[in-house]
Amino acid sequence: MIQTLEQIRWTINDVEGLPENDWIRYEILDGELFMTRSPHRRHQQTCGKIFSQLDMWSELSHLGVTIFAPGLIFSEFDSVIPDVVWVSHKRLEQIEDEAGHLTGAPELIIEVLSPGKQNERRDKQAKLKLYSITGVQEYWIINYFTKQVEIYRREQAQLVKVATLLETDEIISPLLPGFSAVVRLFFP
């Protein structure tokens, strides 16, 4: 049987063979390879502000850790690099491998949208589906252009959109007892 290009599925081993480049990220979603360039400055600043807010709360609560751009290896065909995650200490012990990759779902994943319809589709469709299937409890999609946050929470074994927060709204989560931040604090 001859395989066509559409039938070829990328694996984590294939990605390891690609040239290393600090300006390119490789992700695999259901065997499809995605390459993205280093994000825009505002994207990175937004990630940093979100990380800071969650990390301060994590340090005070001692409930878990906030991680910036970790490698998540869910399977041979699904390996992604979300912008920020939060994971409880107990869960981290269960899913972290010796190389420091997470091999299971953290409780909270945060993606900051990059410009372009393909990037938006990947975060709002492909990654939402992957995170839902793998057991992520909560997923935030941050849009620094509109200064909005879409909140997805696990309901009946899948992630469901429960809110769209605006710049003046306060973000809280049942996963993060005592955490709250006004959404505008996430944006430069």
Summarize this structure briefly.
The protein has 188 residues and is α+β, with helices and mostly antiparallel strands.
Explain what this protein looks like in three dimensions.
This protein has helices spanning 12-16, 41-61, 89-95, 117-134; strands at 24-29, 32-37, 64-68, 72-75, 78-80, 84-88, 108-112, 138-143, 148-155, 158-165, 170-171, 181-182. By secondary structure, it is an alpha+beta fold. The chain has a six-stranded mixed β-sheet, sandwiched between helices. The protein has a two-stranded antiparallel sheet with strand order 1-2. Strands 4-5 form a two-stranded antiparallel sheet. A hairpin with a 2-residue loop joins strand 1 (24-29) and strand 2 (32-37). The mean pLDDT is 89.
Break the fold down into its secondary structure elements and pairings.
Blueprint lengths: L11 H5 L7 E6 L2 E6 L3 H21 L2 E5 L3 E4 L2 E3 L3 E5 H7 L12 E5 L4 H18 L3 E6 L4 E8 L2 E8 L4 E2 L9 E2 L6
Parallel strand pairs: 7-8
Antiparallel strand pairs: 1-2, 3-6, 4-5, 6-7, 8-9, 9-10, 11-12
